[in-house]
Each structure stands twice: as structure tokens, then as C-alpha cells.
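## tool: complex_structure
## caller: assistant
## args:
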Amino acid sequence: MNPAQGSAYERLVAAAAGLKVPDAVREVATAPPRDPEPGQIWRAVWEHTIQLLVITAVDDDTVHAIPVSLERYADTDTLLLPAGASTLEQPLALWWGLQLPLPWYVLDRQVSQLTVPLPASTGPSLPHEVPPGATWGSTAPQPAAAAVEYRGVLADSLADLSGARWAPQGSGALPELLQRRGVTIKQLASHLNLQPPQALAVWRGQAPLTPEQAENLASALGLGADEVLAANPALPAPVIRELSRPSRRHQVRALATRTAISEPDARRRAAFGIYALAARQEGSTTDWGARANRYFELHLR
Amino acid sequence: MAAGAYEELSQTGQLGPETFELLRRLVHQVRRSSGFPPPEGYAEWDDDAAYDVITAMLTREGAGQQFVTGCFVLAADDASLERLFLASIKNFLIDEAKKTPRGKLRRRIARLMGADASFRRMPGPPPRWALSGHPEGAVWQGDLDDLVAGAWRVCGVGITRWNHSGPTPAQTVQALMTILVRVLRHARGAVREEDLAKVLESRFELLSPARFTPLYADDGGLAGPVEASTAEADPAGAGGGAADIWQRLTANERLLLPYLDEDAHHAAQLLEIGQAQAGAVLAGLKAKLLLALSEDSDREAVMGALLRRCADPPSEPPL
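## result:
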């Protein structure tokens, strides 16, 4: 704080000039997201939870991940990696014992990559062999240590991410609901402005309603839109999977912004939209990626 | 030009004018809400003082690079970036505010040890202290956490006052000396005066450590550690013991005091945090109380006085 070195603002600019996010981190974080792979470090985001994770294994629609922090906190079950162990170029703390399966759709951005192999065991017991330069943290020296509470915070974050859901469990009860209310195919076609074959497919439970159609029908029947939507046929697993991929997240967010709804609502709307579109097309293929592309092209124009 | 600090950081990977402006605004927000004193060289807060605080924050060894990288990878939007900035500024200002009382504590224990034949000061810098019975030249070189853990194993000592002008109260002297003797006995050699002060800080929670701030936490408990030690102590007796314990409890721990028999689920609802975190806070509170309510004190009377404080908490001085 020497005035001879210029103004306070100039001193700040000079101090910040040498600070830069590592190129490898910036490159991967700004590139279009790809499907996750073990050894990658991701930022996971769901509603009010944000957490850094290292991916240890990848399944069809879930990843197994351990929370990572740049914080100063550690305990005996924390694996401390040196700065050279990842492209972040910062010492990292891996919180062992908090690993949980997480759905793909909580993954927001890959931000880094480990440059050392993770220990083979990621289960509850601590692995004997650790990467070069890595050490285990030490015992919390006092009661109510910040590290103990911090582990609790991370456990809660992982539980929130692990429990994140967006895909409705459709009951398939739409045909019963329509028949119970005495709605004919002709009335359905009229309410929803559908061609008779499309109305027949919906009436038979062979095609889902879009959220907009569910709202129209609900208001005609004096029901809640959610109630009608929940009676849809369940979404096919490939549709859910396609919309759960990290590469779809920016499209889902753009749709949410454009339609002023939440991200999970936008994802549901897109899923039913894609499903409904496919069910009403002749000779439908199973290329759900292409169908999703088409849907977003139409709705994000 | 970037539309905001988040976009600027995302696009360039560096801090620029948008970020400096946001940081300046947030420094003022934190110092106004928490009453931090202006940095050295300033009689009062202004924009230059705020810029100098940010500069000092960024130029601590390794901290600036970690700050930039951490914010880049953790922030998902402007709101989360702002919360990261707020937490960093608050933690930095707490660390800065601790420097003065830490120096005072060091001087005080140096004076006390210098006047006591049980201790011996090693010649030369940095200042180190050993027990008189230790061999000449034996220097401790272990992990500071071991000494802190050893200090925490000593039950039945507590202090109510140390950071005041005038002579240190006899009870406080005895408590400090008890811990210093135990720590040095454990170390079997001379320990740096600075490290001894850190052990005492931790054991008596004289200067509460800066705590983490979850990205989306409500603006409460964790972000604002309770600055212990500066509150006036009550007279001796149950009220004094309660005052001693009360000033070491965090805001969340104080809220949980009347609900010690409840489970983590209840604690989580009360504190509006996750269940695992609430369980840790509850367990920590119980451990603290167990340690503080030593065998020879009148536990029921002290707990009663503590619970009365929950109903009518004394006002806290600013940081």
C-alpha cells in the first residue's frame, strides 16, 4: 500500500495481471460439453447446489463421483492431491467416503482432468495405495472443527445431486382418465386441434400429450395440468437419456429462459415435445439425438 | 466489452474492470454489514481502501491464483460468482482482523513465560520457548495439529478474559500456563512463540477461524463466525462460566443449545441446512459442552445460565 506505486486501482490492476486461469481449464470449460469419462473433474449444478466432482466411473445414465474442493479443510478420510495432479494446477482435497451415483443431468461443465490415476478402491474403505505426492489428511484437532462440518456440507450436496429428478414417472392412465370423463376421440381432437389419427393415438395411450395440450385438456376437464400430464405414457428411456446428456444442458437452459420456466420444467417440456413429435410421425426412427436436434432447432429459433 | 463479471471471467479467464468494480462494491457491502476496520494506512473506508484490500487479498502467497481458478470453475452464473467473492472478502477481512489480537496474545504469553522459571526462551530468532527441563537445543519440528489436539485433550480449564488492558486475571494465567506446559511437555523441545499462540487461539477459540461459505447458503451462520473473546465477561460463578462458553459458540450452535436432545433431522429444520451438516454442528456442540463443563463445575447452573442467554442473548460487539 505504497502511494508511490501509483493509485490504489493501478496497484490492483498490476496485482491481477499475473493471475490467469490455466489454459487447459479454460479450453475444456468453454468447449461444447461431451459425455463424462472417469478421471475428469466436473462442476455439477442442480437448483441451489453447486459442487466440484471427480468422476470415478460412468454408467449409461449415472456417474459415480467423489466431491473435490480447493478449500483448506481436510480430515483423515480426505486424499490431498498436489498441484500437479490435475490441470487445475492447485492442491485438491478429495473427500473419500462421500461417493454417490449421480444422474448425468446434474453435470454442468467439465473443468479439469486428473493427470494421475485415482486409487482403485473408491468404496467406503480407504485405499492403501495413493497417487505420487498424495497424502491423507490429519485428524481434526478439536471438537466442532470446521472440517467435520464441511464434510457434512459436502455429504448434503452429494445427496441433493444424487436425488435430483426431472423425468416424470408417467402412469399411462390417460385412456382410463379420458373414458371416465366420457371424452370421445372426436371431442379430444376438437379440444386439442388434432387430426383424428393423432387424437386416436393419444386416446389409446400410444402418444403423449405435450404440456400445452395437457393444459388445454385439463382446463376443459376441470383438472390440474400436472394431473393430466402425469397420466401420460411414461417417457421412453432413450428420450430421458438423450435429454440428460451434458451437451443438451445449454439448449434446455435456453428453452427455460425463453419460456420463463425452470430448468427441470423446460427439460420435461422438451422431452414430451420430442416424444410427441416422434409418435406422430410416420415411419419413426429411433435416432433420438436427431429428433432432439430438430426439436430445439424449432423451439430456439 | 463483457456484460458483467461472470462473463468477463468466463471469456478471458482473468480478472478485469467488471470484476474489479464488483469486488469494490462487495468490499463496501461486507465492511458496512460487519463493521470491519479500514486497512492499515487508512483512517476511514473509501474506494482506494477497498481496492487495496482486494490487492492484498490477491497478493497473499498462492491465494490470488487459487481465487481466480476457484471462481472460474465454481461459478455457474453472476449470482454464484458474487457469493464466492463475498465469502472470500469476508474470510480475508476476518483473517486481517485477527492479526492485531494475535500479536497481543503473543506478547502476553511471552511476558508470562519470561516471568516463570518453568520456561526457558531459546536465544536467536524466531522466538522459541521450551520447558526448563528440556535438553539444550532440542527443537520441536512436528505437525502443529498434533499440538492443537494435545491442547484440546486438557479438560477443566477455561478463560474468560485476556484481551483487556491491565493485568491478566489469575484464572486466565493459570489456564494459559496449564496448556503451555502440557503442550511443551508433549513437544519435548522448544516451540516457536507464534505456534504456541496459535495453539492457545485454537484451544480457547480466542480468534474464531474464518469458516467456509456454501455457495448458496442463506446469509447466516457459517459466513459470520462469532468473534469470541472481546465480550465483557460476567462475574465469576455460573454466569461467568456460561459467559465463557457462550462467547465460544457459533451462531448455529447457540440456536441449537435448547435442542440438545433432538436429532439431526430436527436440527437441520431449525438451522435450515442439510441434515449431515446439522448432525456435525450438533455433535460439535455436544463435544464443546462436554469439554467446557468440567467435572468440578456446577453443570446444571451453568447450563441454566446458558439457556437463559438463549432466551435473551447479550448484544455482540462488532468484529
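## assistant note: Residues 78-114 of chain B form the longest helix (37 residues). Residues 5-75 of chain B form one domain. Handing back to user.
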